[in-house]
What we know:
Elements: E1 10-14, E2 25-28, E3 36-41, E4 43-51, E5 57-63, E6 70-75, E7 87-94, E8 100-108, E9 114-121, E10 127-132, E11 151-153, E12 156-160, E13 165-167, E14 173-179, E15 187-197, H1 201-207, H2 229-241, E16 271-275, E17 278-282, E18 288-289, E19 291-294, E20 303-305, E21 327-331, E22 347-352, H3 353-362, H4 366-380, E23 385-386, H5 392-396, E24 401-406, E25 414-415, E26 425-426, H6 431-445, E27 454-459, H7 475-482, H8 488-501, H9 504-511, H10 518-522, H11 536-564, E28 569-570, H12 580-589, E29 593-596, H13 608-612, E30 618-622, H14 643-659, E31 663-668, H15 699-712
Parallel strand pairs: 10-12, 19-23, 19-31, 23-24, 24-27, 27-28, 29-30, 30-31
Antiparallel strand pairs: 1-3, 2-15, 3-6, 4-5, 5-15, 6-14, 7-10, 7-15, 8-9, 8-14, 9-13, 11-12, 16-17, 17-18, 20-22, 21-22, 25-26
Helix pairs in contact: 3-4, 6-11, 11-12, 14-15
Amino acid sequence: MNRVWVVGLLSLTLLTACHVAADAPVADLAQATGGSRVTLDQVQRVGAPEKAADGQMLQRYAFQPTVQPQVVVSAEHGNWDWSTQGELRVRVQNAMDWAVTLTIDIDGAGKDQHLHASIGLPAGPAQTVVVPLHAVSPRAQGMQVGPPMPYDANGQRILLATTVEGAVDLKQVAAVRLGMPAPQAPQTLLLGRVETKADDGALQDAYAGIIDRYGQYTRGKWPEKIDTDEALRAAQAKAQAAPAAQVASGGYDTYGGRTDVASFKPGGWFRTEQRGGRWQLVTPEGHAFFSLGVNAVVPDGGRSYVEGREGMFKDLPADSGEWSAFYGSSDNRRPDASSTSGIGYNHGRWFDFYAANLYRLDGKDWLAAWSTRTLDRLRSWGFNTLGNWSDDALAKAHKLVYTRSINIDGEFGNVSSGYDYWGRMPDPFDPRFAQAAENAVTNAVKEVRDDPWLLGYFADNELAWAGQGLQGRWGLAQGTLHGEARSHAKQAFIAALKQKYGEPAKLAAAWGITLPSWDALNATNFPAPDPSEAHPAIATDYSAWLRQYADMYFRTVAEAIRRHDPHHLFLGGRFAVNTPEAVAACAQYCDVISFNSYTDVPQHGVDMAAVAKLGKPALITEFHFGSDDRGPFGKGVVSVWNEQQRGEAYARFIAAAAQDPNIVGAHWFQYADQPTSGRLLDGENAHIGLVGITDVPFDGFVKAVGDANRKAK
């Protein structure tokens, strides 16, 4: 490793060998006995070696408050050959009373030869930190977030680095660096043996048998965890006895509109109206309605791939007989969407843990029982709307207002904005898009166009209206020009530029680029410039194009909806990323502007001052707060520390939404926890539900939710 150390660094000589045999020592940071070179970079060795509870020796090292204090272990002569090794093991104990971040870097001899792991090291007894000697991630195991660490392996605390980035030639390993990123004060670790192991058994063990027959994490404990079918039925019976007394009585019309405030003129359908500076949804009977909804209220949300990783699951039922109904197969490989990048176990056979638990509860009539129970629960918890992707059968029960999604699929062009989380943007200038929108709307309005319980329609979900980074606002404009010459969107953009500038030389001067001809602009992979202060015309032209693009999209969809259903609201496109141009176009053609806002309060995710100027109300169509103390490993998009804080965060968000004169509702994502082993779509596995994978409600949370909802309505 080529590195110049500052004056005053300490070098020690410890035991090692260049050609490492199976399960061989690299160094012992508690015993300076010769062999390896250890360099302390802004780290101090403190006191004498100490014996840990398990009898192993450890040495204290104080990491100083600098940019990257580190202990560097390198071979005495040449480099190590670890080509037969599978993992690096470091014996370590955090001497602080709080968790610290430990980084472990393994450097190869060549350029760009490097493995990196970052580990949250909890306070407590000594443990063995294990780093696989190759890139790994929970995503490769089929889930977004891996199991909590450390775990117990036959009485030994193992803390596996579940994410390792990079690559290294194991025949030429130059150094191991144990570091800490920019501590603000000295942090002390006790370090011991550093060694390699011939296999990566810890990686296999970390994921082996971690999901039980109910879809729960086997190694964790929490109040709602179920261990027998009898306990499942008892927990469900207890939960079912509670809600009935909480159902609100009086003060609401048939659809949940408030009868205790001044009414509006009945219109037979849901509509929007502004009164006294405040926007309202108005029920068919003419009463103010604040939409409190839940997304993905479905009985099949517990599907998770099992094929190829059967060892992860304990006591999976046979895929024949009565349990065969809960198995299926699908393929969610999508190379064009970054949401699935790196996700392993993304096709093949799956098992639905949630539906199987419903069957355990209610037998062959489980679906009807679930429908009745779920609708009663939602109403008792103060909800009045079924949000996006909810079960159609629930909507037909006419106990809650519902929404309908229009998903525009088909063979038409697309454009990259540079974000493309769910895929590239549809090209609304492609004539095939208009036909696809027509088909999608026709299918969506079937059986619902004359139903007054329908609040309205969403079009698509979280489209890639913007890219990432400082220039992300312009991503769709730059992606349009960068695209293929045959792109309909690109041809429309070029036509607009020709109309404005007339000659390529004038455009070149305005943008500060070389453009010998219009054909040069038409070339595939044209290097679209970034806007700059020196050339303000770029931002002006990009902005005009973004508005033209959004106008074309929303106008096409809106016109199709109006043709097939003139009664119901067009609720917008559920923005996750957006631009001012896209939001303004939505306001022009939609009745409501919908935003998925993952923030502490909606106003921190949506520019409500800008929305107020557009003359249309806003609906928050996704938000949530997650924690990792109820089984699933992920904390969702917005995390809090524990279950109690989930309820507090929910109440704060709903209160802020209800007090805003431009917001007409908020919809929670989602009804049930995601599968601990990862959902089919993209491996998400977060604790964000009102109920668990066993359909048992989280009592403290739903009580807080109910209280907040009743105050908001």
